[in-house]
């Protein structure tokens, strides 16, 4: 496959399949399906979100962005790379973190004065991030230790935002203070329109097993839509979460990194036909992409990153994405090493083209 064919290859957006996948209504916002991409620092940048949206994610969300930084740097230039959204990914949520209601109010006001950012579909409040540099400020999952303040933050956001406000939080700060159910009720009472519950405590970070029982309890305790997050890595685990927790939707995080095909894999049923073409051929399922398809998406991701961030920054940021994509390609280690040292976009594209010519490489 030539470099040009890598660039030109496209993967079509998928259609909803199983009955457990359906549109979801959040106030006046209708989201095409209830399979969401999680906001991940250093993972869910704009170029990757656009790919996941095209692959079938119903809603995507920006990386967490500091509300205080937006408030005190009103031109938003410093934070714009993390805030930037694109019509190619609508509907998209912007996720904010802080520990002061006034920071959120000011940041939301600035966002909705911006010609593009004001088109976001939802404001998501991060109350689940367990990273020390976030929690030491009293933000992220630290807010689960202060439900009263969390409620005031939700109220401030709802008052300031012309779009629905959602909250993402965890099981609790630790096992001894697993207060997700009470926390969810407070968020709902304060005006949140949607909740996402990650079934791990802050203390667990991203290790151990997610507690789906607490997700089920949260879902049963509120009347607004609840999205389940944690340990959904395949169609089988997505189905199990729907069945065991009765959530309104599922959020995919780390399992999507390097594998945006997880969205069509969950969305599609074998033998499903294209809507409106019942007499036509079966829908081609892009579940196990060929090597060329995988390399084409990697090239697309790279090009989009260069367009957004510039060549030098993009190549640095793409290193982790290259590693995630190549995990599933046995024998790709020598190419990975070369990609890690690329300083020019053309050089990286040529390495991907060279990989496509290696008959011994295969996707698993």
- Unreliable stretches (pLDDT < 50, length at least 5) are 1-18, 270-286
CATH fourth-tier homologous superfamily of the largest domain: Aldolase class I
> What is the count of structural domains?
2
Tell me the strand percentage band. 5-15%
Q: What multimeric state do the chains show?
A: single chain
Mean pLDDT: 88
How many strand elements?
A: 11
Based on the structure given, which CATH architecture of the largest domain is correct? Answer: Alpha-Beta Barrel
Helix content estimate: 40-55%
Distance between the termini: 19 Å
| Shape type | globular
What is the CATH top level name of the largest domain?
A: Alpha Beta
Describe what you observe in this structure.
The chain has 364 residues and is α/β, with parallel strands linked by helices. It has 2 domains: 1-15 and 270-359, no CATH class; 18-267, TIM Barrel. Helices cover 40% and strands 12% of the residues. It is built from 15 helices and 11 strands. It has helices at residues 3-8, 46-55, 67-72, 80-83, 101-111, 132-135, 147-160, 180-189, 212-221, 235-245, 262-267, 291-309, 311-326, 333-340, 345-356; strands spanning 24-26, 29-31, 35-37, 60-61, 65-66, 92-97, 122-127, 165-170, 194-198, 226-229, 249-252. Strands 3, 4, 5, 6, 7, 8, 9, 10 and 11 form a 9-stranded parallel sheet that branches. Strands 1-2 form a two-stranded antiparallel ribbon. Helix 9 links the parallel strand 9 and strand 10 (226-229). Helix 5 (101-111) runs parallel beside helix 7 and helix 12 (291-309) packs antiparallel against helix 15 (345-356). The radius of gyration is 20 Å and the shape is globular. Residues 1-18 and 270-286 have low confidence and may be disordered.
